[in-house]
Design brief:
Four copies of one chain form a homotetramer.
Chain A (H helix, E strand, L loop, with lengths): L13 H32 L2 H8 L3 H7 L3 H25 L7 H18 L1 H7 L14 H17 L5 H24 L2 H25 L12
Chain B binds a DNA duplex through α1 and α3.
DNA sequence: GATGAATGAGGATTCATTCAT
DNA sequence: TATGAATGAATCCTCATTCAT
């Protein structure tokens, strides 16, 4: 994707094509820089000048591609979501609700954890517009998209749950996962691995009874035999 | 801390206090204003001028009582912790480990939830120095104090757990509680109540197996039969 | 002087007397504090709050005795000049112009040096209103008084010199002495002593030829024959 | 120092300079403004806003080129020293120690005086960090560089002097010259000229005996036999 | 497009000074 | 008197954003 060998076409669309190629690189550069700065300082404390500096371009250049600071976060979130969907989206869409919960959670959480470790900015954006006035809610792509996805998955398992209850459970689950991811990212090595396990354990325990109680009256027993 | 009266008089603290009465009121006023602004904008985006304005005083007055912005957060955290201890600390210190988990959690979480609903800034400060360089860790009284308390309580239940494991479980629990509190605060009325229940359920499910497995080989059964 | 045992008189002048006694102590306290702060930070960077703090009183109290910051410097200068006059003024007024120059300089510079070492603020104020707009010239008691004194002494030695020339020589001499005093104060121990000697040597060499050439037709040899 | 172009291009410094031309002009403008403000108010009382205003730019522009107030003084000092070296440095390095003292002093002091009259800020910066905490010593380029130069020149004349003595004499000389320059700048027209002569006379008289007594066993007469 | 200069409002903080008690 | 609270303009400096080249 970053390499579009821009064949010299006639006249009209040639220039834009070349431009867009260079522009794409710039944008990617800027977003990568933004990811770093957001992680280090948080959205509010991150300065567009710092992002431009980190990207090795001038402030003016940054504003040639983004109308303002928020747009950077929005676009970064959009791209990370996109990358997430490309990498793990298929698996997500094809979740098999008949799987035992622990396997299902593994199939969901393992990629999510891995993706967050590789893209720590994802976690930052995942938290969404905690503070009103920062990133407008409707612009908070990552948070709402993931939450919706969680809700949908849960809906498959709990078809009888009222929408409000579903939303509540999804929010609760997602909130815990976000917290767990933060802890995971805050640690390293074996400690990090232990937190990964712990997060999955927690989610399993939380959702286990719900799932067990609901569709399949299987002989599901405790999750840590 | 903001006031060191150091009068070389002999008398008690009565005389010097009269002068400070106004100041004490101002401090309370400023902290209340800070609580509001912190809740609305978060620590980073909160401006001392905004706090002063909200308190109805000039910027200079604010700095008569606090040396800088962080000190405001620290003092606010300190006061909230103090209030928390005064209101619910005794109950916390006297937790009866022989209680069934759900009762124990009620005795811990109900007050915590109530306190957060009454003091929403508590939740803000509870999150601690998410971003390195904001509020210094050692100054992050609320977060570390509560985390330590959680760890201690858990230690009573899991005397055989390794320290690292204990810390992990405490962090995980605390993280989830923080997330849950955020959700509670983000909702109102019956929805808020439902979230309260949900949070307790989640913590119960997470800790239940740990506790059951540990000291008392009682006939404890799952909590959602 | 600081101790006026205020005997209880009738009515009218009793109160003021007592007040003045306490006030005198306060003023002395404040001026001493100001001396310290001026030495440490210079006049511009010295804050009235810092002076009050150093004096152990409140800002309000300071302004009960001085209308503004400049007045503090002016009064401090006045008092130091007063002390200077009381201690060494007599000797100065009774300078014997028939003395050989080196003895005369000793009789002038030795006390001046000693006084400056004991009252470092004197040197600070001696420099006068280097910067227009700080301490108004007419308020710069120390500088102008000392300069005038130097001029008068020199006038005794050089009765034939034109006023402008006299003023020039006085300024030059005074300027060098100020510089030398700064160096003296900047050093300690034997190095300080060496600077004392050096300063006197310099002044002697500067004034020697002038004095020699003037009243007494001695066998003075000049360095620029 | 304020500009690190770091273009990864191959070309010479021609291209990158074109962009900086405006900036270079701004820097010069700002430094000129700073020189004026420093002269009028002194370093401490000079405000960056005042400098920006004097330069006809906004505060932000100033900070695009200088990280803080001290850096302005440092750069100004550096440029003035540079200009000084370019204009008179060669003559200084090629001082002929066999010259008679008065000619030598002329060759040193005349340019110095002239340079100070043309660049009054030089005198301000020459005084160095009189007050601890203002301009850090190591940043006080003008003062230390000139003092060192004086010391070196004197060293040529007094090869047998102990280092401490040399330093003392250099300090004394430099201090007097600074004082004299101040007086020169404080006057105008013929009075200024007269002060110029007076300063040279004073230095000559101070150093004459030292020099005479040292290398050339001339028939020098000292005033303190 | 790219650059870096420019902006000016705003942020934290200080300070001389005044006021209420 | 003395205190300490109060003020608000001014300080240094930053930042999102715009402009000229």
């Amino acid at each position: 994707m970053p390499e579009a060998p821009d064949t010299e076409e006639q006249a009209g669309p040639a220039q834009p094509r070349r431009r867009q190629a260079r522009g794409e690189r710039r944008i990617a550069q800027l977003l990568e820089a933004a990811a770093g700065v957001f992680c280090r300082s948080g959205y509010t404390a991150a300065s567009t000048n710092a992002i431009a500096r980190e990207a090795g371009v001038s402030p003016g250049t940054l504003y040639q591609f983004f109308p303002n600071k928020e747009a950077i976060a929005v676009e970064l979130g959009g791209r990370l979501m996109q990358r997430w969907r490309e990498t793990h989206g298929a698996a997500f869409d094809a979740i098999d609700p008949s799987l035992p919960l622990d396997e299902l959670l593994d199939s969901v959480l393992d990629p999510l954890i891995e993706f967050n470790c590789e893209n720590p900015a994802f976690a930052v954006l995942m938290h969404g517009s905690e503070i009103p006035g920062r990133i407008t809610e409707e612009h908070d792509a990552v948070h709402s998209a993931l939450l919706e996805r969680v809700e949908r998955i849960l809906g498959d398992f709990l078809p009888d749950a009222a929408p409000a209850e579903l939303s509540r459970i999804a929010n609760m689950t997602f909130s815990s996962v976000k917290g767990g991811l933060e802890l995971i990212l805050a640690h390293e090595g074996t400690e990090r691995d232990a937190y990964k396990v712990e997060l999955k354990t927690m989610v399993q325990r939380y959702l286990g009874p719900l799932v067990d109680a609901a569709p399949e009256p299987a002989d599901a027993r405790t999750h840590t035999p």
